[in-house]
Every structure is written in C-alpha cells, then in structure tokens.
Amino acid sequence: MPKSQVRKKKVYTPPTDVRPTATAATRKPSPIWLPVTAVALIVVGIGWLVIYYLSEQAYPVASWGYWNLAVGFGAMVSSLILLSRWR
C-alpha cells in the first residue's frame, strides 16, 4: 500500500497590526514599598477585625460600633487595590 504524502505546514507569522506596543514591554517593575504596604494593610485589617471580635466589640474604638468592620475590611480591600498595580 502506498504511503500518503506528508503535508508541510507553513511557518506562522503573526500579523503586524496586532503586535504589542513598545511601551508595554518597557514598563518598569513596581517599587519595593508597594507589596510591603499591601501585606501590611492585610495584616492590619485582619488584626483589627480579630481584636474587634475577641474584645466583644469594645476595642479598637468602642464608639465606632460596627464601623470597626468597615475599617478592617477597608484596609484589606485597599491592599487588593494596591496588589492589582503590582508588576
């Protein structure tokens, strides 16, 4: 039985109008303070919430009441915003 012919594939060349721009390739890495600040905000937020619950809502600031939850979660959300800018 004869063998079938092997077809040669063409070499792929990406289109020139879709290539990434030069500015995207020359972005600088993030400064060192960015991940350090983000991790610190996560630790502060979790610590704030843990103290709030373990102290039966008397600490960190008793007069704020449930706004202490907003402070703790706000710190953690702000760290996520910072980490979204990390390269």
Question: How would you describe this structure to a colleague?
Answer:
- The structure is a single chain.
- With 87 residues, this protein is mainly α.
- It has three helices and no strands.
- It has helices spanning 22-25, 33-54, 67-83.
- The longest helix has 22 residues, at 33-54.
Helical residue percent band: 40-55%
Low-confidence stretches at least 5 residues in length (pLDDT < 50)? none
Number of helices: 3
Structural class: mainly alpha
Strand content: under 5%
Mean pLDDT across residues = 86
Order of SSEs, N→C?
A: HHH
Rg from Cα: 27 Å
- Identify the overall geometry: elongated
* Total DSSP E strands: 0
The main pleated sheet reads as: none
Task: State the end-to-end CA separation.
Answer: 59 Å
Quick overview:
The protein has 87 residues and is mainly α. The protein is 49% helix and 0% strand.
Supply the key terms.
single chain; 87 residues; mainly alpha; 49% helix
Write the layout of secondary structure elements.
Layout: H1 22-25, H2 33-54, H3 67-83
